[in-house]
Structures
1.
Amino acid sequence: MRRIAAAAAGILLTALVLTGCSFSASDTSAVSEPGVAMPEAMDDEMAARDGDMAAGEFAEESSAGADVVEPDRAQITHGSLSITADDPIAAAQRATGIVTAAGGRVDSRNEYPEADDRAASASLVLRIPSERVDAVLTELKELGTVNTVSIGSTDVDMQVNDLDARIGALQTSVNRLTQLLAEAEDIADLITIESELTNRQAQLDSLVSQRAALGDRVAYATVYLELYAPGIVAPAEPDTFWDGVVAGWNALWGFLGGLMVALGVLAPWLLFLAIIAAVATGIVLLAVRGSRRSNRQQQAATDAPGPAPTDGGAGDGRA
């Protein structure tokens, strides 16, 4: 029994030792071989880094895209300004100096000095650099009492881009045709290429001219400045339907009044021309009647019968 018990105890001890060794080996392998467990953590970390980098790049691309989507668009600025000044003529001179100093120009300037039947006034068409419109308007408002101010803008970015694209395409075509013209040797090819080149060049010049005009309107705002003397009320734009009817009626009466004045000016000339026309018509009629009378007399002389033959002459003929 003691031998059996000792043998059983030895077997149990051996099993316990082997079990402990296996646990130790597994723990050691888990620590000494990180390649089995570490790749997932490393992959997660790398994925997180890649995600951060991708997010950063997306944010940069989004910000860059925002800059591209909303650049400075091409716009035409236009407006009007009405001012009451003590001396409209002097104010017009000052306005010209303000605009010129800002880098602009005056396209039109009309001055109406004071007369017996009217007060002094002036009107100007100002071309102001678009980026300096607000600053120039602030200076212009100091010329007197501001009656009305109206400023607006029209987006022409699409037209500008369209013209630029068409100009680029035509310029490429012209360059290619010029090269073909230099390389052509056949007379028929030369004539055909030269004709097409002339046509394309004309189209290109036209588009370049349109682009320059549009660019000028974009670069320089157009402001209509009206200067009135004190006591003159600036004409207001109609705001309602009845205001429009009244304005149209007044315009009609003004047109009719101007028409009557024009007819009064033309009346002496019309009478003089009528007298000349009557005299010329009478002379022509007299000439026509004289010609007809002469033709009738010639026709009557031609149709008259000749003299009848005598008997003696007839007898001699029978003999």
2.
Amino acid sequence: HGRRTSGLTAFLRQIGDNVTRLDRWETELNEALPGDARDTTTPASMAATLRKLLTSQRLSARSQRQLLQWMVDDRVAGPLIRSVLPAGWFIADKTGAGERGARGIVALLGPNNKAERIVVIYDGRMPP
């Protein structure tokens, strides 16, 4: 492609995420081949990275607000998480879907409209 993804992976290493890696761009990264280590992370790594991005000085305050706003404005997770939250709960999320049924959700959640928890769900089950 000529465009390199190594910059994001290098940034992740700088902030202490030694697991997450980006090897390809959209839409190729959605391939989700079983056993393929490319374009992968773990729930724990993603949660820790999101917490760092939103609470440390790794991003400017403006960039932190923008990231949070993108997550607040996301409506894809409506039937996935939003529809089952109790009234008054805060949610800001990003979702993703790959080939072969792969699914991912990264969300900030909390009662009383406060973002108190980070929830990360990855489902790599293959359809029957």
3.
Amino acid sequence: MTGAATTALVEKNIADHPEGQETHTPEEQPREQDQQQQQQQEEEEEEESDEEENGPPKKKSWRFWAVFPALCVTTFLSALDTSILSTALPTIALDLHIGELYMWITNSGMAGGANDARLIIAGRTVQGIGGGGINTLVDIVICDLVPLRQRGKYVALMAAVWAVGTVVGPVLGGAFAQYVSWRWVFYINLPLCAASLVLLMLFLRVGHPHAPDTAYAWSSWQALVPLLLGLVGLGLFYLHQTSRFCREPSIPRRLFRSATATCALWIAFLQSVLLYWVGYFLPVYFQALRRASATKSGLYVLPITAAIAPLGIVTGILIAITGKYRAFHFLGFACLTAATGLFSLLDEHSPARDWAGFQVLFGAGSGMIFSSTLPPIQATLPESDVATATATWAFMRSFGCIWGIAIPTTIFNARVQALLGGVSDAALRARLADGGAYALASEDLVGQLGDAPRLMAEVLAVYRESLRWVWWIAIPFGGVGLLLCFPIKQLELSEELETEFGLQEGREGREGREGEANGEANKTENRST
């Protein structure tokens, strides 16, 4: 090669490979191109992933919108079952002559065909077991189908359905008791149960990952001992659940390690206590003091139940938009506490604007608390504990229902017994004693005393003062709930749904996309090799 040719070749090589850039042999160039293509593909996948995470929420599939109405029907059934007795219970107690046993009917659910107290209590027991399962499972299913930040909207919609059930319940209960038969208070559940069961069997098909093995058989002592100890009492149940011998407790202690989750669970409990406290004794006020029929008393409690729905929905939407929930706790319990105090001012002469306005205030506070207590509980826990936390939240609400009826009932009966000395008629005193005042809280009693105004005034005074004590003692419960709002922290609510129990349709699509991505990655790896 001549000197000129050599110089030209060197200049061409320098032009093709500027200073600072490596030179490659012909064999290395295809491998470098494959690596660059792989890197570019990975960057594009990351960008697409970021767009999916930061983009708008994904649209729900048709199967979701088929399942959601079924859950609404189920929730409506559960709400109707809890509220329909409130106006019909005095009639049932009077018809079956069960006296002070009426408080057991409210907590127990075969009842339509009962002819004595024992059968109706047994029937309500079975019905109550099913109702408790409904409340828990509906909340868990929603958590499996909806991301944390969006759950507030759907929980609020469920609260609205619950409110409709509680609105319709007292009216239906009073109408059945007055015009048809109180037995239809229980028979009405049958068509609703059938409709809900059909919808859920057709559309609720969720993913269910199977573990490689079962930890304990149902016949083993590890599974049976917790169930049996639960019958012994809440104290022994708690001791067992917190002992080292129970590896999978129903309510793990880790749920209560966070002050936020613990306080949120307890304010859910107190909200339920006050809701049933007021829901079961406002009808007594209307029927005994205002001489309203069972049907009218159901209409008169509409303000409290109607206010729960819109405030619950608005609260859920605002939580979904802003991710903030703490302010609703304070505002909600402030309304509850104020309303319970205002109820003590009511008497037989109170205008409608007072008792209706106080109910709206109470319903607004209850709706805000109902929609805002679950997000902080779930935000403190990993997704694997969401079902357990949701079940615990539902348990606390159901547990509050028991005390929300038992405590005011005890107060009411005790005050009636203490005030019966002011009733001059001995026969009437005997009828009002030992729980009889609740069963006689109706327009019929007042009508019988129309010819004896002095005796009627004495009886009304007993009801008025007894109810006043019921409302006074409710105030500290609201105050404790307000104090429990302070330790709750404002946490970030995730907008991503990470669960193994979502609808199968979405899960299959997700698995298909993952399979395609893995296939492309394998092809790229083979090309590189």
